[in-house]
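Subject: Predicted fold for SET domain-containing protein, 428 residues

User T.R. writes:
Posting the sequence so we have a shared reference for the thread.
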Amino acid sequence: MRSRDQQLDHFTEWLRGKGYDQHRLQLAEFPETGRGMMAKEAIQVGQPIVEIPRSLLITCKTPAVEATVKSFSGDSTLLSEHQSLALFLAHQRGILGEYRPYINLLPTHFTTVAALMPKEIFNHLPWELQAMASAQRTHVRRDYARIMGFCDDCKGKAEYSSKDGSCPNCCTRPSLTYTDFEWAWFAVNTRCITLNTTQRRITHSDTPKIALAPMLDFLNHTSEAKIQAGFDATGQSYRIRTLMPYEPGEQVFINYGPHDNSFLLAEYGFVLRHNPYNHVIVDRYIDEIILEGETVDSRRVANDILDGHGLRGDYTLHLDDDPSPRLTAALRIRVLSSVLKSVPPNVADMCWEPLVPEQERRVQDGIRCVCEAVLLHAEQALRGLSGLEAHSKESLAFSMVQQVWNDTVAIVKGVMQRLADKEDTCQM
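User M.O. replies:
I've generated the structure tokens; pasting them so everyone works from the same file.
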């Protein structure tokens, strides 16, 4: 078996053979992020940090990918781009093929991605993060079942094993274990790039929408990085330009976009220590609290109004800002529904402005109740995490989930402090 240094050297040689010879960056290990890309020389604003030639991009149209897909389905257009790339990686993992140098440097597991965390840690994730992870698990199972040609009766077995050929209603496909496909699915999900489109998982068209980009996917994310990225049709390469300078020896970063830590943990399997985009989703907490004077009937009326005007859900709290306008508006509608015998037709317009003082006090009390409910949940989750076995506490997944909850506590306490400050100002 090759050592890590030998694998890196082999990968570098393979890149050169594919037409890539990057002189500005090199792979390196960093204390806080692990493997990343280091500047070999000073890089100025506006200079490209990577230019991946088309010949190196792995897409659904790459001949090796099309050949793999056809060996399973006979028609490469029947699978989505994500399914095709995942199938290709899973297949390549089991052979000594052309892409072995790249496969060797991919993570061997993705246990920091929320969907693949150990059950004892997964159970302590925030609700919305559990929901995202569960949706991903379902997506992977469905993709696997489609690739394997499972009939409806056999789809429930998809997460456990490949089809053994005993069911006459299933298509006969080459062997592919669910474990290998799951690994490949998350390898694609955590590493693919979009080629000048915001759509990620759609059926094929003449032009691929996503790609795997060997070398580029070793660049790490930070919210501070400023870049311009996209496929350059003239140069026939995927190019990333930096909008900030780097000194030799510094780690060079890219920016995946304005994502909070819950999204990063679900999609990519990491969190940032100081993430300015962090927020707390409180939809479920809002549904569980009861406001002063609220009745079953008034709540039903309020919910009908919220649903009718598209104001149900997407309620958030932020560290250095007021609660989201949608959250405050929803609470105002609930307050008005509880105090008025007949809710005015324009209530959806009224809810964006402060109500009369007594009614607005109930709104602020509602926000405070939500905050208290979130804090209680956070304290319970952190206690549950602290009670896990030592081997679980030593995992990266444990520390990441713990940070998500600590960030949540900081945000909620900040909101409560601002509420208290406003109350003190009003009483002066």
